[in-house]
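Sequence in, structure out. First:
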Amino acid sequence: MDLWTVIAEKWMEFGAKFSTAFIEGGRWKLYLKGLASTLELTVIALVLGTVLGVAVAVIRSAHDQQRVGRKKNPVLSVINGICKVYTTVIRGTPMMVQLLIWGYVIFATSRNHTMVGALGLGINSGAYVAEIVRGGLMSVDVGQTEAGRSLGLGYVDTMRFIVIPQAFKNILPALGNEFITLFKDTSLVSAIGGAELVYYAKAVGTKTYDVMLPYIGIAVMYLVFVLILTWLQGKLERRMRQSDRH
């Protein structure tokens, strides 16, 4: 048997496996369904994580910026303590363990495992976003806050119109990386029965008795979307740098 015959046979074998994994029985629809679910998970977790992270960061920054020598707000101190415990626990434990607790302990009776996964991802992301945003707020000169106060702005308006816009430029790379990581971490939701790309790839592998091509296929899908998100992040960073020059 010559080399070309072997190559032709291997190519035909690969073609048959490819057809079985992606085409037969309309299985390509399962991958698209999994991709749609993954993107939905990412958006929900992204919104939850951003809102939670910004709120925690603002609370912790407000507590840290209380003037020395003055009596500290006891309510703010308690809330700050809760936020500190939250970020410490979430950042100090694996996301997989957190998802298992959410799925099999806290929401053990829930049938919507995908939304439970989105909640777990959002709460996990919120802790990291909080530290990223807090670092960005601390990087802004305290004189900016004092300038806002001197103009008669309250703390919330000062943060909203003066501090946060400046901090956002500093934290954009780290924030973009966190969002990309969040997109990839949606694959962990399959551990609690959530329906996303890995879940449907497993389903196809179970039917075809071959998981290699389904897993390689979703790996390529993840890679393509990560490259797109990275390109968009770079484009946004360049635009912001250009606006700073003008």
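Second:
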Amino acid sequence: MTLVALAGGTGKLGSIIRSVVESEPGYELTAVLTSASEVSELDGADLVIDATHPDASERILTAALERGARVLVGTSGWSAERIERIRPAVERAGTGVVFVPNFSLGSVIGSAIAASASRFFDFAEIIEAHRDSKVDSPSGTAVRTAELIADARDEPVAAPHADQPARGERIAGVPVHSLRRPGVIAQQQAILSGPGESLTIQHDTTDPAAAYAPGIRVALAGAMATTGVTVGLENFLDLGLGA
């Protein structure tokens, strides 16, 4: 039986994760932490799941590593640079940390397809939209997609006039544009362009609970089977896409 402590279990994502953990055989939820909780409530957990806030996430992760627990991070705001800064602590702890920017299998597959296809196009840009209450931008999903696109290519994407603020924030050289507005849950468009044509790969989340549950199950198993730092749910999926 895997003992699980969930930080941020009363939030939107945390509530979905809690429901999955409670229904999944082989896992026992032993603690649900809120902003008023003490980190000592993580004691005894084999796996700590972080679904908190960008400002609180690192504190939870550090406390979990100090206790020798594995960690599954679902909180946005972890850039590649920030992840690299905590890698030595993970290695010292001898455990594993899995960062999942998006638990939706469709979103993960869409990002992987965009990365693979971007090798054939000079231009790539990302437009992402989320609800107006989302506190971070660009989204963790868009950041991860941009990083995957950059990693898949031999040359940087073309980004003319990138010095102009209206051209979006450049993540790994890829322009990313964020929309925050009511009436939307989550949407991402990866737009690839070349001479005479363009390809748009779009993913929409319409029901987070239904969309995230399969990916959360994949992430739970992956988090308990790996050591070191792992970024992205795609590492636990056989997508069959060539690099």
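Remark: The longest helix spans residues 208-225.
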